[in-house]
Design a protein that fits this description.
The complex is a heterodimer of chains A (349) and B (455). Chain A has 349 residues and is mostly helical. Helix content of chain A is 39%, strand content 0%. Chain A has helices spanning 2-23, 33-38, 53-56, 59-62, 70-73, 82-86, 105-109, 136-142, 146-150, 160-163, 176-188, 190-196, 199-206, 214-217, 232-242, 254-262, 291-297, 299-306, 315-318. In chain A, helix 16 crosses helix 18 (299-306) and helix 17 (291-297) crosses helix 18 (299-306). The chains are: A mainly alpha (349), B mainly beta (455).
C-alpha cells in the first residue's frame, strides 16, 4: 500500500509541476504576415509602397531564406517599438532541423505553376496557428518523386545528418505500434530505413553482447517503448512465462545462467539454490508439477540453466535404452538422420 | 577528387572539418561530395553493487564499479570508387569499455567491432563486404563477416543473398561471458574449460526473393546457420504487407523451421487509421519456443508445445493536450491455460507546445500462475531551448511475493544540456528498492557527439 501511495503522490507532484511549467509554455509570437501584406493601407498618394514577400525576403537575389535585417523594419517602425521587440527571433536558437532541406527557391519561383508567389507553399504565413514551413505533402502535390521513392532516396531534399534526428510524422510514423512491427518493416523497406538509419542504430538495441543496454544508454527517452525498463530483474521471470519465446529472439539461453551464476541463484554454483521442488524429477513426468510437463511447456526456461552442450544432464536419463523414456513429444520430427552428431549422444547404436 | 578516393584520409579530414551548413541553404545534390556522419557516445558510470544478495537488505558483499564505455560509429556515403562516382558507402561501428573499482578485476578492458563494411552500388545492384548484420525474414537477426549482395529485377522483383562466418563476439572468445555483455555483470567461472570455438565451423547463408510495389510487399526468404559444423537453424520465412487503402493495411510474417517442418513463429496484423487522431491495430501471434533453440541443443528435441496470442492496440488523440493509448493481449498456452497482458497510457501535454510531456501508464500482466500490476509516471520538461529534464517513477505490485517482497519501485531522472547542435551532455541517476536490493543507486554522465558534413 505504501508503494501505491508513493505512486499516487508522485503522479500528483508531476502533474502540479507540469501545470506550473505549462503556464509559461506559450507559442512564440509570430510575425503578423497577413497584417503586413494586406492590412496596411498602401500604394496611394502619401502612403507607403505595398509590401510583397520579396520586399523583406530577398529570395530572388541570394536564393536563401533571407531573414530580414532590422534596418528594414525600422523604415516604418521606430526603434524600441514594442511590436518590433515582440517578434524578435529567439536568440541562440537554431532553426528547426526540418528547415535544413535542399531547396532551390529561385528555380521554384520561376515555375509557371508558382508564378513567383510564395503563398502557394507558405500558406501558413497568413494563418496565426499554422506552420510557416510547408508540410512534405505540399511538395508531393506537384512532385511525384517516383524515381526517388523507387530508389528510396531522401537525399535529394533532406540532408543526411539531419535525417537521423527527424521523426516521420505523416508516413512510417514511429509510434509504439510501429515499434512492435518494425522488424517486418525493416525487412521489406530496407532501403528506406537506410536513408535515416545506419546499421549501428539497429545494434544499439539488438546487439545483446554489448556492455550497456539501450535503457541505460537512453534514459531520457521516456516515450520509447523499451523492453527492460524499470525493475526488469524482478519481473523478468513473469515476463518469460507470459511470452515464452520472446526472450529467445535476442538472447541465447546461456545468457540466463551467466546472470544467475553471478547473482548466486544458479544451481551451478556450489552454494546455489536448487529452484526445483522436492519430487520434481522423480515420479511421473506427466504429473501436474512434474518436470516433463514443465519442460514441454517452456523448454527455453530449462535451457536457461541446462544448456551446456549436447551432453547436457537430460540425456543421462533420456538416452535410448535408459530409464527416462522417449523424450520426443507426439508430433516431433526431424529431417536429420540418427547419424547426425547431436543425435548420436542418445541414439548410440 | 583524389582525396575522396582514399578512404582513410577522407574520414580523417571529415573528422577534422565537420560543420553544420546554414539552415535552408539550397544545394544541387548532384554537386555534393560524400556525406560523413560521426557518432560518439561516452558513458561514465558509477554504482555500488552486491554480488551475492541475501535476504532483503542483507547483502553479503559489495563492490564499487566505475565503468567507462565508449561507442564510436563513422559512416560515409556516396564516396567515389576509382571507376565510378558516388558508388561507395562505408560504416565502422565499435565500442570499448574500461572498468575501474573493485568489480570486474578479471576483465578490466573489453570491446568489440559491431560493424565494419563497405557497400558498393551500381545501378539497381549493390554489394556489401565486411562485418554486417542481416535482419528479418528467416534470418531473424544474424551478424557475420562475409558478403551480401542484392538488386532489383524487372516487374518489381528483387533478390538479396548473403553468406559468411558467424560473428563470435570478442573475436571468437569462448562462449559464455560475452553473451551476457558487461564484464562486471558476468562471472563465467572457468572459461578455459569450454572448447575453443573454430570459426570456420560457424557460418550463415541465406537470401530473400521479394516483390515490392507501392501498395504490396511480399518476400520469401531462406536462412541456414551452422554451429560446430552441424545444423543450428534451417528456416524458411514468408512476409507480406498490403495497403488495401490509405487507411487500412494487412500483413503478416512467419518463419518455418525446415528441420522439423513446423512453424517456429508467425504473426498477422491489420492496421486501420480511420482518422488522423485514431489508430487501431489487431494482431495474432503463434510461437513454438523449442524451435528458437539451436538444433544443436539437445533440449530442442524435448518439446513441441506452442502458444498463441491475440489482441490489439488503440491510440486516440482525444484532445490537443491528451492522447490515450492502450494495448491488450490474451495468451493461450498449450495446456489451455490463459494469460493476459494489457496497458493503458495517457500522454498529457498541458502547454501550447510539447515542452512538457506527462506519461501515466497502468499495466497488468498475468502469466502461468503468476503476474504483476505496474504503474509508471514520467515527466519530461524542456527547461530552456537547450536544457531538458526528465523524471520517471515505476511501481510494481507482484501477485506472488518475490523473495518475500511483493512490491518494488524505481525512480530515475535525467538532465540534458545540448551544448551545441552536435554535442550534448546528460547526467542521469536512478534509485531502486526491489526484492533484490534494499537500495540500488546508480549514476552516469553521458557525452554524446553527432555530427555530419560533406567531403
Amino acid at each position: 500500500m505504501s508503494a501505491l501511495r508513493s505512486s499516487s503522490l508522485w503522479l500528483v507532484v508531476a502533474v502540479l509541476v507540469a501545470l506550473v511549467a505549462a503556464c509559461g509554455d506559450r507559442l512564440p509570437v509570430r510575425f503578423p504576415h497577413a497584417q503586413h501584406l494586406s492590412g496596411v493601407a498602401c500604394g496611394g498618394p502619401g502612403l507607403p509602397d505595398c509590401l510583397s514577400c520579396n520586399t523583406c525576403h530577398r529570395l530572388a537575389h541570394d536564393n536563401k531564406q533571407a531573414f530580414p535585417q532590422k534596418q528594414l523594419c525600422r523604415q516604418c517602425h521606430q526603434s524600441g517599438d514594442a511590436r518590433l521587440l515582440a517578434v524578435r527571433p529567439p536568440a541562440n536558437q537554431p532553426a528547426p532541423l526540418a528547415y535544413t532541406i535542399r531547396f532551390d527557391h529561385k528555380k521554384h519561383l520561376a515555375m509557371a505553376e508558382v508564378k513567383g508567389q510564395c503563398i502557394p507553399c507558405h500558406a501558413g504565413a497568413a494563418e496565426p496557428d499554422a506552420t510557416l514551413f510547408p508540410p512534405m505533402a505540399r511538395c508531393f502535390e506537384c512532385h511525384e518523386h517516383q524515381k526517388q521513392w523507387d530508389k528510396a532516396e531522401c537525399g535529394p531534399c533532406h540532408v543526411r545528418k539531419d535525417l537521423e534526428r527527424l521523426m516521420p510524422e505523416t508516413f512510417v510514423r514511429h509510434d509504439a505500434t510501429f515499434q512492435r512491427g518494425h522488424g517486418q518493416a525493416a525487412t521489406q523497406q530496407k532501403k528506406l530505413c537506410q536513408q535515416c538509419h545506419v546499421q549501428a542504430q539497429c545494434d544499439d538495441c539488438h546487439d545483446v553482447t554489448q556492455d550497456l543496454s539501450i535503457e541505460k544508454r537512453r534514459p531520457e527517452a521516456i516515450e520509447r517503448n523499451l523492453v527492460h525498463r524499470g525493475d526488469f530483474v524482478s519481473r523478468h521471470a513473469i515476463e518469460v512465462r507470459s511470452q515464452p519465446a520472446r526472450c529467445a529472439r535476442c538472447h541465447q539461453p546461456s545468457f540466463c545462467d551467466s546472470c544467475h551464476m553471478e547473482r548466486g541463484v544458479s544451481g551451478g554454483r556450489i552454494d546455489g539454490r536448487n529452484p526445483h521442488p522436492v519430487g520434481w524429477i522423480g515420479g511421473s513426468s506427466d504429473a501436474p508439477s512434474g518436470h516433463g510437463r514443465d519442460a514441454r511447456r517452456d523448454i527455453l526456461t530449462c535451457a536457461g540453466c541446462h544448456e551446456q552442450g549436447p551432453a547436457t544432464n537430460c540425456i543421462r536419463c533420456h538416452k535410448v535404452g535408459a530409464y527416462g523414456g522417449n523424450p520426443h513429444p507426439k508430433g516431433w520430427k526431424s529431417s536429420r538422420s540418427e547419424s547426425a552428431a547431436m543425435c548420436k549422444y542418445c541414439h548410440v547404436n | 577528387m583524389e582525396t575522396r578516393r582514399l578512404l582513410g584520409s577522407s574520414l580523417l579530414a571529415a573528422g577534422l572539418s565537420l560543420s553544420a551548413p546554414a539552415a535552408a541553404e539550397p544545394h544541387d545534390a548532384s554537386d555534393d561530395g560524400a556525406e560523413v556522419l560521426v557518432r560518439s557516445e561516452t558513458h561514465f558510470r558509477l554504482y555500488q553493487r552486491a554480488l551475492l544478495p541475501g535476504p532483503y537488505g542483507a547483502t553479503i558483499s559489495e563492490e564499487l564499479a566505475a565503468p567507462i564505455v565508449e561507442y564510436v560509429s563513422v559512416s560515409a556515403n556516396d564516396l567515389d570508387a576509382p571507376w565510378q562516382k558516388r558508388s561507395l558507402d562505408v560504416e565502422l561501428d565499435v565500442w570499448g569499455s574500461a572498468t575501474f573499482g573493485e568489480a570486474g578485476a578479471n576483465r578490466r578492458m573489453d570491446g568489440d567491432v559491431r560493424n565494419a563494411f563497405v557497400r558498393y552500388r551500381s545501378g539497381p545492384a549493390w554489394l556489401r563486404l565486411g562485418r554486417q548484420s542481416v535482419a528479418g525474414g528467416a534470418a531473424r537477426y544474424s551478424r557475420f563477416d562475409g558478403l551480401s549482395a542484392g538488386g532489383t529485377l524487372p516487374f518489381g522483383l528483387g533478390l538479396e543473398a548473403y553468406g559468411g562466418l558467424t560473428v563470435l563476439p570478442r573475436w571468437a572468445a569462448r562462449p559464455g561471458y560475452h553473451q551476457l555483455g558487461s564484464p562486471v555483470e558476468s562471472l563465467w567461472r572457468d572459461p578455459s574449460a569450454l572448447p575453443e570455438p573454430e570459426r570456420a565451423e560457424h557460418w550463415v547463408a541465406g537470401g530473400r526473393l521479394y516483390y515490392d510495389s507501392s501498395r504490396f510487399d511480399a518476400g520469401i526468404s531462406a536462412h541456414e546457420e551452422r554451429e560446430r559444423g552441424e545444423l543450428a537453424h534451417r528456416n524458411l520465412g514468408l512476409d507480406l504487407r498490403a495497403d488495401l487503402t490509405r487507411k487500412l493495411s494487412l500483413g503478416g510474417a512467419g518463419v518455418m523451421d525446415l528441420d522439423s517442418t513446423r512453424i517456429a513463429d508467425a504473426r498477422g496484423f491489420a492496421q486501420y487509421s480511420p482518422f488522423r487522431v485514431l489508430d487501431l491495430e489487431v494482431e495474432a501471434l503463434h510461437a513454438e519456443p523449442a524451435l528458437f533453440l539451436s538444433r544443436q541443443s539437445v533440449l530442442s528435441v524435448f518439446s513441441t508445445d506452442a502458444y498463441d496470442e491475440a489482441g490489439g492496440s488503440v491510440r486516440y488523440r482525444i484532445w490537443r493536450h491528451l492522447t490515450l493509448s492502450g494495448a491488450g493481449f490474451v495468451q493461450l498456452y498449450s495446456d489451455d491455460e490463459l494469460g493476459q497482458r494489457g496497458e493503458v497510457t495517457a500522454r498529457i501535454t498541458p502547454g501550447q507546445t510539447d515542452r512538457t510531456v506527462i506519461l501515466t501508464t497502468i499495466s497488468r500482466v498475468t502469466a502461468q500462475e503468476t503476474g504483476y500490476r505496474a504503474m509508471r509516471n514520467a515527466l519530461r520538461q524542456r527547461i530552456t531551448p537547450v536544457v531538458d529534464a526528465s523524471v520517471d517513477a515505476y511501481h510494481y505490485f507482484y501477485d506472488d511475493p518475490i523473495r518475500g517482497y511483493d512490491t518494488s519501485r524505481v525512480y530515475a531522472g535525467t538532465l540534458e544540456w545540448r551544448a551545441l547542435r552536435q554535442l550534448s551532455l546528460l547526467w542521469g541517476t536512478s534509485f531502486a528498492q526491489t526484492p533484490h536490493a534494499a537500495s540500488d543507486l546508480q549514476t552516469q554522465l553521458r557525452v554524446r557527439y553527432v555530427a555530419g558534413g560533406t567531403l
